[in-house]
Amino acid sequence: xxxxxxxxxxxxxxxxxxxxxxxxxxxxxxxxxxxxxxxxxxxxxxxxxxxxxxxxxxxxxxxxxxxxxxxxxxxxxxxxxxxxxxxxxxxxxxxxxxxxxxxxxxxxxxxxxxxxxxxxxxxxxxxxxxxxxxxxxxxxxxxxxxxxxxxxxxxxxxxxxxxxxxxxxxxxxxxxxxxxxxxxx
Length: 185
Known about the structure:
72% of the residues lie in helices and 0% in strands. By secondary structure, the chain is mostly helical.
């Protein structure tokens, strides 16, 4: 079943939409959640919560790309769970490290208003669209999928040092791009 057919099931309020989504994207969602959360149980719960959130948000949302939408929901829920689990204790994990890396470019948006969030998302889309393919892949692997620089280097036949340098330069470019766009963080 393709994405348009699954979204049509959501729009028709047919509960089989959740099962079809799970059948098609469960591995993808688990990969995202498990890269962020060390607990397999927490990851599984976030994936299931993402299916429920999709049910509760489609409609009014009508995603063009269901994989991106369900992936985004899974990622948001997993990051929220991570923050909740580590509210009292800071550091120690890969997610804490990558959030610290991005903090120099993008501040914590948990209390931001929707208009600011949409403006930031659109700016990020433009920024990523302007990157070379390899740079975009490395950036997304690190900050979307929470891959370690070591794993990215191995998968892309690069050195870990070159991955770290590329990420540093890309974060610097991102900060400059956002400032140029009038988004001060």
